[in-house]
Specification:
Layout (H helix, E strand, L loop, with lengths): L22 H28 L11 H17 L1 H12 L1 H21 L2 H29 L8 H30 L1 H22 L19 H20 L8 H22 L5 H24 L5 H8 L4 E2 L2 E2 L8 H20 L6 H17 L14 H28 L6 H21 L10 H20 L1 H7 L5
Antiparallel strand pairs: 1-2
Helix pairs in contact: 1-2, 1-5, 1-6, 1-7, 2-5, 2-9, 2-15, 3-4, 3-5, 3-15, 4-5, 4-7, 5-15, 6-7, 6-12, 6-14, 9-15, 10-13, 10-14, 10-15, 10-16, 10-17, 12-14, 13-14, 13-16, 13-17, 14-15
Family: Belongs to the major facilitator superfamily. Proton-dependent oligopeptide transporter (POT/PTR) (TC 2.A.17) family.
Keywords: Cell membrane, Membrane, Transmembrane, Transmembrane helix, Transport
Protein name: Peptide MFS transporter
Length: 489
């Protein structure tokens, strides 16, 4: 399907959407619905995998199920590489975003309609591929709405992040209700409906995007198309073969994604830094992104345990009773988005008010990583309790700290990726940031095997301590990193 004509003017002075460009509203909406479907499905995915067949699940051991969820989450962000490459070399960001939304719809329908492990396998692969393509390109297109020196950029990304979390709030609540009352596949079906609404909404707003959103900054020569197609087919066949011979298994998926993501990150940094088509200033800025990448990995390795360790913890340990009614497990995942919805506007207003006086990007990253480590230490007073021993308010408080850390790092990371990116690697730098999320997410799934409910203190203390050390180290190095950023604050 051909794309609509896209306007050519960059809306530098457009303030029709809460002081931001009008086109941000469309991207806000499609990302909201994508996150509704993503988190709605993920809110019930882990318990679907490890609940018994009698309970409507698949009866997979908890550690293996956690590894699958972590690997899937990592694969979502790992697939941003493919989405970014297609955007930068073949189709442009806008077309890739639209096609990715269609793939996500098909993935959710597969998960809802196909039974057993086949439905899980087909559905998760398609959702991972589609979500990766959508995430990298939606973020990149948001970056095209602003000039390089527009002080609204960080505030705009914070507002965009609000859309993400509106979807993340409602998704687990509604899919959780359907799962408890009608079964898992009804919950998965609702996720498919949500993404379909996002696809329809995005189609009607595509024409308002700037021409840059449809540009192909580094076109692949026509002579290379055949080679690229053969590599793609060969890669798919190789993956299928590895699954069939037992090299790739459910119990080692997270380790495989970790290795693949590390290799991809190293290759991407090498590719960009060694390019002769970037300037010395651009190369310096890419070097500045490296310590931010490391801090981001440490942050996400802890944060993404909301969907692995915290889900198991909420199912077995958390007192979810409210006036005699037991809250669904999936609803715990809507607590963090509530705080995001409340605080994202506060942070956006704060950065706007401070303007050029706001903390630098390295300082924000350092604070976010250290605070995330501190949040893990807050689990220690409740460690070792029995069933229903952890008060719901305690988890609410801990997730509030998660949120503060997230707002200091995640939307700022998206913004940093666009402003530190060389002009020829704009979308692929966003993919690099998502690679840090992929690596951290896969590590979060791999770490599940070390979580022992009967001896929790070492787990929370060691991981929290590591994140605090990483944050402090980046804080000490903030000035040298800022110097490498060459004027980008």
């Amino acid at each position: 399907m051909s794309s609509p004509e896209i306007t050519s003017d960059k809306p530098a002075h457009d303030t029709r959407f809460f002081g931001q460009p009008r086109a941000l509203a469309n991207l806000f909406g499609v990302e909201m619905w994508e996150r509704f479907s993503f988190y709605g499905m993920q809110g019930i995915l882990l318990i679907y995998l490890y609940y018994s067949v009698a309970e409507g699940g698949l009866g997979i051991p908890e550690a293996v199920a956690g590894g699958i969820v972590g690997a899937y989450g990592g694969a979502v962000y790992l697939s941003t590489i493919l989405g970014a490459w297609l955007a930068d070399r073949v189709l442009g960001s806008e077309r890739v975003l639209f096609g990715s939304a269609i793939v996500i719809v098909i993935g959710h329908l597969s998960l809802a309609l196909l039974p057993g492990l086949w439905g899980v396998g087909v559905g998760l692969v398609l959702i991972a591929l589609g979500s990766g393509g959508l995430k990298a390109n939606a973020t990149g297109i948001v970056g095209t709405l602003y000039t390089a020196d527009d002080p609204r950029r960080d505030a705009g990304f914070s507002l965009f992040y609000l859309g993400i979390n509106l979807g993340a709030f409602f998704g687990p609540i509604l899919t959780g209700l359907l799962q408890e009352n009608y079964g898992f596949h009804w919950g998965f079906g609702l996720a498919a409906v949500g993404m379909t609404l996002g696809l329809i909404q995005y189609w009607f707003g595509r024409k308002n995007l700037p021409a840059e959103a449809n540009a192909v900054p580094n076109p692949l020569p026509r002579s290379s198309y055949r080679t690229a197609i053969l590599i793609a087919i060969g890669s798919v066949l190789a993956l299928v073969a590895l699954v069939l011979v037992g090299v790739i298994r459910a119990d080692n998926l997270s380790s495989i994604v970790i290795i693949a993501t590390l290799a991809a990150a190293i290759a991407y940094f090498t590719l960009i830094l060694s390019s002769r088509r970037i300037t010395s200033t651009e190369r310096s800025r890419v070097w500045a992104f490296l310590p931010l990448f490391i801090a981001s990995v440490a942050f996400w390795a802890l944060y993404q345990q909301q969907f692995t360790v915290l889900t198991v913890y909420s199912d077995l340990r958390l007192d979810r009773h409210i006036f005699g009614w037991e809250m669904p497990v999936s609803w715990v995942q809507s607590i963090n988005p509530i705080f995001i919805i409340v605080l994202s506007g506060v942070f956006a207003a704060l950065w706007t008010r401070l303007g050029n006086r706001q903390p630098s990007t390295p300082a924000k990253f350092a604070l976010g990583t250290a605070i995330m480590g501190a949040a893990f230490l807050l689990f220690i007073p409740f460690a070792g309790g029995g069933e229903n021993s952890t008060p719901l308010l305690a988890i609410v408080g801990i997730l509030f700290v998660f949120t503060v850390a997230e707002l200091l790092l995640s939307p700022i990371g998206l913004s940093a990726a666009t402003k530190l990116a060389p002009s020829l690697f704009q979308t692929q730098m966003v993919a690099l940031f998502f690679l840090s999320v992929a690596l951290g997410t896969a590590i979060s799934g791999w770490l599940v095997q070390f979580y022992d409910p009967s001896n929790e203190v070492p787990y929370f203390a060691i991981l929290g301590g590591i994140a605090i050390v990483v944050g402090l180290a980046l804080g000490v190095a903030a000035k040298p990193v800022l110097a490498l950023m060459k004027g980008a604050h």
